[in-house]
């Protein structure tokens, strides 16, 4: 079975300020987890699903990443997009868009891992016909991730970047299929957040969809979750 797209983009340019106490000498996605850089678990997942190219969007201490990973990971070709100034998650994808060839691209947060079927996500995205499809999953506390509300047709009708009140429900799993033309609407060289700007705009147009998965999930955004990740893998 072939993947719906052969290209992925990995957001690896965040400052990682909450994790600074535990990992200060490298970008957050390069933090050592079970003896290897965290981002390699995402690259391994891409290889398993037949992806051929990964554009890694780097910023803070970005030169460290290609020095460690090189130009290839197994059968996966690695390409790097460097930010001179922080552009946010949306701005980083827009900045790297000239390195992408296809009309649909998989985008992944570089500091979280969701063990889902990437091929199925692509198929759901094509069937939805929307601008973007987010993988979502049920969690007991939605405060650390985007809280998502979905209607009976899979359309996202509510998206809150970081809810203040602890409550169970669906969260953004940090894995997206996004149409190229949706990324082209993002202003170039501008700091823009996917979660706070791009996704709410798509929601207002009715073109943002979700695919609920039952999959293992971990992030390394805090020292506590970073410790949990050591056991997760």
Concise account of the structure shown:
With 233 residues, this protein is α/β, with parallel strands linked by helices. The protein has helices spanning 39-48, 64-69, 88-95, 118-128, 180-184, 194-204, 223-232; strands spanning 7-12, 32-33, 36-37, 53-58, 72-73, 76-82, 104-109, 112-114, 132-139, 147-150, 156-160, 169-179, 208-212, 217-219.
Structure description:
The chain has 233 residues and is an alpha/beta fold. The chain has a single domain, classed as Spore Coat Polysaccharide Biosynthesis Protein SpsA, Chain A (Alpha-Beta Complex), CATH 3.90.550. The strands form three sheets. Strands 1, 4, 5, 6, 7, 9, 10, 11, 12 and 13 form a ten-stranded mixed β-sheet that branches. A two-stranded antiparallel ribbon has the order 2-3. Strands 8-14 form a two-stranded antiparallel ribbon. The longest helix is centred in the middle third of the chain and has 11 residues.
List the helices and strands and how they pair.
Layout: E1 7-12, E2 32-33, E3 36-37, H1 39-48, E4 53-58, H2 64-69, E5 72-73, E6 76-82, H3 88-95, E7 104-109, E8 112-114, H4 118-128, E9 132-139, E10 147-150, E11 156-160, E12 169-179, H5 180-184, H6 194-204, E13 208-212, E14 217-219, H7 223-232
Parallel strand pairs: 1-4, 1-7, 4-6, 9-13
Antiparallel strand pairs: 2-3, 5-6, 7-12, 8-14, 9-12, 10-11, 10-12
Helix pairs in contact: 3-6
